[in-house]
Each structure stands twice: as structure tokens, then as C-alpha cells.
Amino acid sequence: MKSQSVSTKSFFLSSPSDHRFHVNGYVPADAKAKGMVLIIPGMAEHAGRYEEFATFLAENAYSVYIGDHPGQGKTAQDLKNTGIISRQRGWQSMLENVRALYTYIRKEHPEAPVFLFGHSMGSVLARHFTAVYPVYIKGLILSGTFVMNRALLLPLLNLLRLKSIMEGAENKSAWFNKLFYWNFNRHFKPRPTMYEWISSDRQEVNTYAKDPYCGFYLSNGFFKEIIKGVLATARAESLITYRKTLPVLIMSGKEDPVGRFGKDAVKLHKNYFQQNFQHLSLKIFSGRHELLHEKNKEEVYDYLLDWINHSLTIK
Predict the structure, then answer these.
(1) Distance from the first to the final alpha carbon of the chain
(2) Radius of gyration (Cα) for the chain, nearest Å?
(3) Which end of the chain is least crowded, N or C, by CB within 10 Å?
(4) What is the C-alpha separation between 311 and 114, in angstroms, rounded?
(5) How confident is the model at residue 313 (pLDDT cuts 50, 70, 90)?
């Protein structure tokens, strides 16, 4: 989607671990940006999928930057590399990439307030980043986030460690991936694709299904790093020392199986409330996992813009 009022850019950055990752940028062409939005995508997708939303924000005076994770999008550089991540520090490398992009934004726009928007796996990265790095962000938006039981995570982590040893960390286990996607997709009928859980909009699902850089199989190592990251995030959040005046928006689809149909968003909101966060918002929309690609996406866009504009006034 092109807009004469928006300038786009595409470039690579290096993180402290010397990992190069790709970034898309969207900047208001004719006005000074009121703020910056750093978007952290979910897994098995890419930065290009946020073009419409990023253009909408840029048309409303916000610059937007989106990085592709290791093994995803243009960072992967080739389809054969999708779903593969460093076997030892995969989650940490993604976290360091977020920090590198935040640092870039701060250097380019030192006075502008920065909002962090994380979707799905990206929302967990946003939560971890906020909990462990003493940086100043203006607001935190968590979309399609989830909470997983430690008692279930530990056996799953041990299984993935065993699979990595037996099959190789870069092996993309067909049965495990099919089970992973089926666990979400089983809630919807008919099921012409594996991705009905993404959106109730048929065109959006078909676009996702036809995109070779979406919905791909993940390696044993990638799954293992995600589980390690979820566990690390839970530990960090239990000891969170971030300022409690931070505006936080938690949003979910009422039909989203990843977040247990809105229940995880409510649970996370309760956790943050118990830690005395003072500017908490919870919004459950009609829709499935990807609210930015739902039938009511214009409603979601407008709500997010209003929330961001309001958060600028909070001291």
C-alpha cells in the first residue's frame, strides 16, 4: 500500500551479538512525527504484513519501525532459512534485535516518545524487553498475547531438547508443526487451510496461506527457544521494576485460541494490576488472533490511534 504522505525505507541493522536483521520504516513525509511505534511481529510472519497498519499510523503523524526476526522475513533471506534460529541464544538474539532497533530509533529521533507494540510471540518479547531493560518508552501495546503454565512448559522444553539432540536443532519436524497449528485450527470449521485461527476474513487467511514467508514450519531449535523465552519472561515479570505509571494496553480477539479466547489477556491484566500499574487498559475485540487483519480492522486501527494519542498526555 503506497501513500504520498508516507516515506518508506528498508535497511539492515546489527545487534550487539553481531546479528544482522532487516527493518522496514514508515515515516510521515510532510510533517514532524508526534511519536515512534516499534512493532515486534509474531512468529512465522514478517514485517511486510504490517504495511497497512504502519501506513495508517504514519498518515496520522507517527513513524513506525518493524524488524524481521531471525529465521523470518528478509532477515532469513532465503526460504530454506525460515524457521531456523541460533540453537543456543535464539531468544536472546531476538531480544537484542529489539534493543538495537530501539537504540536506532532513539538516535534518529532523540526527543520523540516511543511506543512498543508486540504481537503474539512479539508481545512476549515486548513484555520481556520492558521488564529487563531500563529504557524509557511511552506506552506498551500487547496484541494476541498469551500466558502458559510452567507445569506444561517444562515437559515440553525437555521434549524439544530431546528432539534437537535426536533429530537436530535445525530439523523441522512435520508432525510437531502439524500438531502445533492443528491445536489452534481445530476450533474452527470449515478448515480449508491450517490457518483459520488467524482471522475470520477469508481473504486475509488466503493471503497468509499463500505467502511462503508465513505459516512455515519451525525448527526444533526455534520451538525450544520460544519456550525458554516464555519461561524467562515469566521470571522477569515476577520481579518487574519498571515504572508503574507506564500506559499498558492488552488486547485480544474474543475468538483467539492462542490467548484462550481472551482469558489470557484478562489474566495478564490482573497480574499487572496486582503489581500496581496505574494506567492499564484491556480491550477484547470481536475477532481471532490477528486483529490487524480482521473484518473489523478499521475499528481496531482507530482504537489504537486514540489510545496512543491519549497516552501522549500521560505524565
Answers:
(1) 35
(2) 18
(3) C
(4) 11
(5) very high
Residue 37 identity (one-letter amino acid): V
Q: Provide CATH code, domain 6-311.
A: 3.40.50.1820
Burial class (CB in 10 A: 0-12, 13-18, 19+), 303: middle
Q: Could you read off the pLDDT of 218-265 as tens digits, one per residue?
A: 999 999 999 999 999 998 888 777 778 999 999 999 999 999 999 999
Cα gap 188→58, rounded to integer Å: 35
Q: Are 226 and 216 in contact (CB under 8 A)?
A: no
Mean pLDDT within 304-314? 97
220 by Cβ neighbours in 10 Å (0-12 / 13-18 / 19+) ranks as buried
The secondary structure of residue 239, as a DSSP letter, is: T
Place of cell 532469513: 76
Answer yes or no: are the C-beta atoms of 218 and 83 closer than 8 Å: yes
Dist CA 214 CA 193 (whole Å): 13
Task: Give the Cα separation of 49 and 68 in Å (integer).
Answer: 11
Q: Which amino acid, one-letter code, is at 178?
A: K
pTM higher than the cut 0.85: yes
Give the β-pairing of 62-67 and 6-14: unpaired
Alpha-carbon distances, residue 51 vs 8, 23, 64, 282, 310 (angstroms): 10, 12, 10, 25, 23
Domain layout of the chain by residue ranges: 6-311
Query: In the sheet that 139-143 helps form, which strands lie side by side, from edge to edge?
Result: 6-14, 20-28, 62-67, 35-40, 114-119, 139-143, 247-253, 279-285
CA distance 175 to 193: 16
For residue 228, the SS3 value is helix
DSSP 29: S
Instruction: Give the CA distances from residue 49 to residues 98, 119, 166, 184, 215, in Å, rounded to whole numbers and listed in that order.
Output: 18, 12, 35, 20, 12
